[in-house]
Design goal:
This protein is α+β, with helices and mostly antiparallel strands. 45% of the residues lie in helices and 12% in strands. The protein has 33 helices and 26 strands. It has a 6-stranded antiparallel sheet. It has a 5-stranded mixed sheet with strand order 18-19-17-16-20, covered by helices on one side. Strands 12-13-15-14 form a 4-stranded antiparallel sheet. Helix 5 (62-73) crosses helix 7 (98-118), helix 24 runs antiparallel to helix 25 (505-512) and helix 27 crosses helix 29 (594-606). The longest helix has 25 residues, at 285-309. The protein is extended, with a radius of gyration of 39 Å. It starts with 9 loop residues before the first helix and ends in a 6-residue tail after the last strand.
Amino acid sequence: MGMTTPPRTLAEALRARDDESLAGLLRARPDLLTPVPSDITQLATRAGTRASVVRALEHLDRFALQTAEALAVAPDPAPYETLLGLLTGDGRDDGEHRGDADAAIGDALPAALTTLREQALVWGEDDRLRLVRTARELLAPSPQHPSPTGLGPTVAEATAGMSPGRLQDILATAGLPATHDPVSAVTSLSALFTDRARMGELLDTAPAEALSVLDRLVWGPPYGEVTPNPTPPVKWLRDRGLLLPVSTRTVVLPREAALHLRAGRAHRVPEPQPPSVEAVANRDPQAVDSAAAGQAFLAVTTVEELLKSWNSGGPAILRAGGLSVRELKKTASTLDVSEPVAAFWVELAYAAGLLASDGEADERYAPTPAYDDWAELPAQDRWVHLATAWLAATRTPGLVGGQDAKGRALSALGPDLDRSAAPEVRHRVLALLAALQPGTAPDPETVLARLRWERPLRGASASAGDTTDLRSRIALWTLNESELLGITGRGALAAHTRALLGSGPAEAAALLAPLIPEPLDHVLLQADLTAVAPGPLERPLADMLSALADIESKGGATVYRFTPGSVRRALDAGQSAADLHAFLAAHSRTPVPQPLSYLIDDVARRHGHLRIGAASSYVRCDDEAVLNEILADRRSATLRLRRLAPTALAAQVDPASLLEGLREMGYAPAAESAEGDVLITRAGARRTPPRTAPVPVPEGPPVPDTTLLGAAVRAIRAGDTAATVVRKDPADAPAAPSGSLPRTTSAETLATVQAAAMTGSALWIGYVNADGAASQRVIAPVRVEGGFVTAYDHTADEVRTYPLHRITGVAELADDATS
């Protein structure tokens, strides 16, 4: 759609765009689409609202933002050459590299302007560039909110309200001709500050101390405080208008004077090109992949170990939600990691849907049923599941231990850990790493510098409780978490991660699989009651060994230690002594040491000799001497035991406490059922009800798909046609006010609609729906019967049926309205 005259408003500029350009605007600023604007005018109005403009500015890169900032301090409208001059300067400070820098600015400026135009922040032709008013207000200087450029108000703005006599004094001191017209006085002073030669002559007469004052204000902030009796240098500047009063104690350096001192530049350092990501090391890609694969396997086993430790019911949930500090420390000790790292693993399991609240009255965390399915997958598929969940999660473990806006501590698995920017930052950081050569480890500071250039305004936190650059913090956490998770190896992006980002999970798992060590089916038993697993174990072997022995140390090889308690744990799970002997003989590459065989037999001999049941609870044993020994032991006093029969004792504590108490005294009791059978307790039985993984908190409205964009553009175009179409009013009808619904009688409405259906012409109608909402529409009637009109609705771009009694009136379109 071409235009023969320059647009006068943003709405006219948007109306002149083609459909593809409008769709691009809605894609870049999806907040404009909710709800779909009724026409172009409403779209332009919404695009100029403060909230929408702030969101659009936050998505600009540094140079596009600098371009908008320069337009905010330029005349409105500004020609392209003026804008370019504000970015490159007037050439008075040309240095050795200034020419190359100006050339880079000239090359980058058209693209920056294109971005601003596409996002409806700038409109107009190159000879009349206009920044939307809301953006100008946000970026323009004021005493409360100095301009990002560091420039102050213009002479006209700073002298508004100044007495004519004071203006005359300034003109006289500056050597300018007197005038009694305040407008002429302001124009004369502005002309002085923008005249290179005359301004240079004025500054040549300035005292050195006055120039020092200007040097402190020139790059901002331009405001300064003065005393009632200013110093001579300040008085010299104030008398000549180089400092203008804002209040009785505040002066400002006017914009025209500051630009002269800056050699015409709005920014001290324009940044037309993004900073490059520098390398700190170039490593062997195969070594990188191997290191990342090892860490990926460790990540899988760590999450599995965490959830195993919570198999029988994890820690209780705080009233405010999340883990207590004590429980986090306990988890860190179990995993043998620091507390921040433990918080990361806990949050990762939660984000992956493997961990959730059990929903009971005494609410606790526990593995979900999805954990059992996940645990059966090959190691590479388990890693892909974790990595995919991490990439999409808005939960930010790095915040754990900090405080929210109200000063409350942020806990792991607690509320207020979602940061909607996290997924975008993670993907962007990994994309920057993927752009480097394989094996290249980047300098973190250059990664942060690149992110700050790409989104300079997005460093503001998503929560009032954050006081530093949130995106930079998330980026640093991303680099650290990537190393923990096996996304990177030795600081460089691994090949399987490149595949995950590019080709998808299947390709990533295929590349990772050969690098993960094959699980072993054996251990090495040693005479000191330990077993060494020289690598990862097959799942059944690992599960059985974790029940029979305690992990003593982890690393490349895992050391398990057999103790009376660990052996009893295996017996409680239903294993017999013969089963344990057979298991060790089948899975040990070394002979079973005699001390280990004796330990198993000794514990098994005493296991189940005592029986615990519910009275409150009771102990029964065929050997009276054993019961006498228990009663005589002072440690049994807390159990409040009394003899019921020669072979039975009653206790005032519950069976579980009685079991624990007797085990602490060195006995090996077994629980029994009401029928007198030994109860077998199996680990890992507690699961939450089915749970879905937490849904990431979106960052603003979702980006619409192509189908929705096409429908939205058609609806806006049709609505615009309905709002701006030329109509034929009946000769005897009064002119309807702009934007009002047409009004005709029922008979006139029916006759006009029937005639349009016969001739196939279009009509303009007013319509009130069942909810009472009124709208204007352009329709082409197809059929009229039974009190309804079926027509093609140009506004909705579809065929609809309307009750005739809801049509307020009709009017024919002008002959050229649809041409």
